[in-house]
Amino acid sequence: MRFLDQTPPFLFFTGKGGVGKTSLACASAVRFADAGKRVLLVSTDPASNVGQVFGMAIGNRIKAVESVPRLHALEIDPQAAAQRYRDRIVGPVRGLLPDAVVNGIEEQLSGACITEIAAFDEFTALLTDGALLQDYDVVIFDTAPTGHTIRLLQLPGAWSSFLEEGKGDASCLGPLAGLEKQRAQYKAAVDALADASHTRLVLVARAQVSALREVARTHEELAAIGLTQQHLVINAVLPEGEAATDPLAAAIRARERAALAAVPDVLANLPTDYVALKPVNLVGLQALRMMFSDAPATADSVSTALPEAPDLASLVDEMARDEHGLIMVMGKGGVGKTTLAAAIAVELARRNFPVHLTTSDPAAHLTDTLEGSLEHLTVSRIDPHTETERYRQHVLSTKGKDLDEQGRALLEEDLRSPCTEEIAVFQAFSRIIREAGRKFVVMDTAPTGHTLLLLDATGAYHREIARQFGKSGERGMHFTTPMMQLQDEKQTKVLIATLAETTPVLEAAGLQDDLRRAGIEPWAWIINNSLAFARPASPLLQQRAANELVQIDTVATRHARRWAVVPLQPQEPVGIERLSRLTAHRPQPTPA
Amino acid sequence: MTTIQIYDPALCCSSGVCGVDVDQQLVTLAADLKWLEQQGGKVERFNLAQQPMAFAENAVVKGFLERSGQEGLPLILVNGEVALAGRYPRRAELARWAGVSQFTVTAAPAPSCAPGSGCC
What we know:
With 592 residues, chain A is α/β, with parallel strands linked by helices. Chain A is 47% helix and 14% strand. In chain A, strand 10 (355-359), helix 17 and strand 11 form a beta-alpha-beta unit.
């Protein structure tokens, strides 16, 4: 494993949820400790399972891992850190100002930026604590700050406004004014990150086209700000041996090989390691020590009794009853939102409903193959990058036009925050949702609850009027705001897409909470790419499939009002025929 | 000297960058405040999302929030008394409150805005 050779003292793992960052971080920590190094493992996962991996409670104080000599661990919860920050600002006025006002302030402080900056604040201390490196040879983080956060911290303009007067918030960094550390300490932390003799960044991805594309973007963004010491790990690659006996495994392997053959150029020159798929999730020391071994994993065949699970077709049946409406497929990147949205749109069009499918599919190959191919189906595309760029240019040319150099740099960086993309996409999105009164509009993108709440400032006013009209019993007064349309299940159905794995399910539950805050109740969950329901023959895949059942049960019993499982497809579901397979009725297992 | 205080609604960043669209009112206001400053006037601004205590500690502002809610903001106090609510002041109003002549600058001042001015 090249990423573990001659490492600098700080090792950061980064990659999207579900690729196995935490497992890799834990396995690396054990590996170093076994080799005689003193190791500190830092988890910033809000649902950290590091404790579970080592069979102990850890928490937000450095603790010795008893089963592994020389290993210590620490869990930082960025959401708790953000909550402490909110409490510091909002706490003193609670009860003094009206509740509605206090809630409004809290929502303002609930964005993703605040959580990120609060997390950065938490590990700044670790990065700049000289004593730490006397106690430990290696410090391993299972996450890394984004380029946006680091760049903001590097801008002198970001600091001047609140340092000068202690008020006035130039930017999304404004929140830092309420945090405890000093500018010098943040600067030292950023310097440590960009110092190759201090820090190595390990990009983690799966052998999938979209995952590799995303990791290439992260690579470029971080390299551009000086974090050039990067390694790439492709995790959970299906071993060759499995493909021999199982057509499904052979198909998966062929897809992985094709994805790796087409790896983006910017990644091709990075030192790269491949970690083989293991039969079980890596919990427990023994499994962790196996992680980097090249010995073929042996797995016994298991036959899994599949639970009764609704299929996507049954959800489409129910949608079709309303004959029109907005259908939004939401979820984290990589869960197959675009494919699911396309499959639903195709199926509705086949049933002779007019359908407008709008996707943000970056590759656009789906859009290209569908356009004009089916009666009743129109396809359009919202390109988040184009929309964001248009919005940025608009803002810079209007309010940025008279700024001095520092102010302009700051505004430009603010416009690179994740919120900006959401707002820009929302504007494109609002243009389309009006059509949903007449036909089906299916989209694979949607603003988060937080964005909706912030954008609903005018909606609140409309609601107030609606309430007053309602009181006086007047009828026929007819108007809706976009927010009201989204909250009304008759008009809008929100589908949450996820995978039958721990982190994706947790992330989907977080998304659902966020939507509920905005008064939007997700209509159904879709568990996509289920291995279990694809009925693999390979023993290794069978073991993985068996592990899915716990997560499927969690979704069915704890999270979803309606749900469906879509099996993993042997071939990339592109084109009408293959998409239609996703919405075919599935024969239910007959009870034994 | 006249004290002018502006109590802004909760803004993620007072630039309005995080809003639905760039608010032209905020841009214009920032330019007007800059102008007023050059004339020797002074204005204090408070953002509800970041300095809520400033709202709670002022009886007039607190009472206003209880009656009209956040939707009623912005609120503008001149020497501690309500001068305007629900919209931002125009340059002429600012000039009158501050007791400066609107016409002291003959060349049209370029609207400019700097970090911390509240427009960016």
